[in-house]
Amino acid sequence: MASLSITPLLKLLAQYQDAESKVVTQDIVTEVTAAFAAILGQGEVGDNQRAALLTALTFSGLYYESQIVNAVVNVMREAAVRVPIDFHDKDFATKRRLLKRNNYHGGFVDIVGTGGDGHNTFNVSTTSALLASPYLLVAKHGNRAATSVSGSSDMISALAGGPFILSIPPETVGKILTDHSNLAFLFAPTYHTSLGSLARVRKELGFSTIFNVVGPLSNPIEGIEARILGVKNRELGKVFSEVLRLMGCQKGMVVCGDVGKGLDEISPCGKTFCWRLVAAPPGSPPGTLATIEEFELHPVKDFGVSLHPLEECKSRSPEENANIVKSILRNEVPAGDPIMDYCLINSAALLVIAGVTDDWKDAVELIKQGLKEQASLKEWEGYLTGCKVYGKSPEAVATVTTITNGVTPAANGVTANGTDGVH
């Protein structure tokens, strides 16, 4: 197949770069959309032009421009492998109905950070997703570490006892959610397969491109009701909140902790800058976008937990982080533990943004109650059971551990006390 040329777009970007008054025209947005549709779809764009486009977007600053980011996110999600969820399935509809609470309607939620803040903190977003899962339908989108010691997928693999957890076929996700758990982990490379052809170009460029920006926004599942997105510096707060608004998100919050140049989570050691999407009021015309409200959150004043230095919330290896998560899920971590409180405030925020409660402190108490009842542990073990039932990996069947009591599996996949184990 002959290569497609994106030279007209590259000329437009050169003109934009040279202009005194920089205006993102509809022509630029349209051409960018078409170019990425070709790059990620069936069209062929040569490596030189791919590299030129990514370079131009980065050095012009357009890779952080909300209209451009929104356009590329839409293309990314359109090109992604589908997660076939039957929202009309009787059992799945019943599950969603039972989860409804106050202003939460039983839709999917996600919590993710952009990374790249340089702080190398604990896997807070992933742990917070686990802690919130008794109350919410969680579709956690994640990947391996890029700039930290332990990425979301690295820790999840360690927690599960093997990388089989990353190989769950997309067509089984709905069955797992319906029959076993409120939780699903969506490993980004499984769903964004078209990015594989860009790996060499991105590696050779050696700097951040728009794909580093759009990844956290590209959760492939349909029906996301609420999401929290952490950004690495305050300047990106308005950009990402505007992108969420343009995407049609009605419940969402972008956060940046006031630590150094920024922390891509709610900070355990001081204030956090927040950009919250406020849904259009009832009776608004169809398609009315949310508004954006700016404010600050503080661990003590808003969540009722103590302050902790960020140094006490650093990431360890994936295995060490997984062991900490196991202790949290078993409710073995003492009150006031720095990492515990760090996870509490972030998971509580997800409950508030989803609409389970409108009080940050009440949300903390709900998370604590879920831990006391080991409800979060049950959701995680339910997810692992579903992965064993529907996963195609022999490792998923053979590797069985029980987080609850740490029982070592027997060779036949049954624990020594005679009960079925869980990965």
From TrEMBL:
Pfam families: Glycos_transf_3. The keyword Transferase applies. SUPFAM superfamilies: Nucleoside phosphorylase/phosphoribosyltransferase catalytic domain. Gene3D superfamilies: Nucleoside phosphorylase/phosphoribosyltransferase catalytic domain (3.40.1030.10). Residues 107-372 form the Glycosyl transferase family domain. One of its GO terms (biological process) is L-tryptophan biosynthetic process. It comes from the Eukaryota. Keywords: Glycosyltransferase, Transferase. The keyword Transmembrane helix does not apply. GO terms for molecular function: anthranilate phosphoribosyltransferase activity. InterPro entries: Anthranilate_Pribosyl_Tfrase, Glycosyl_Trfase_fam3, Nuc_phospho_transferase. GO terms for cellular component: cytosol. PANTHER family: ANTHRANILATE PHOSPHORIBOSYLTRANSFERASE (PTHR43285). This is Glycosyl transferase family 3 domain-containing protein. It comes from Arthrobotrys flagrans. The lineage of its organism: Eukaryota, Fungi, Dikarya, Ascomycota, Pezizomycotina.
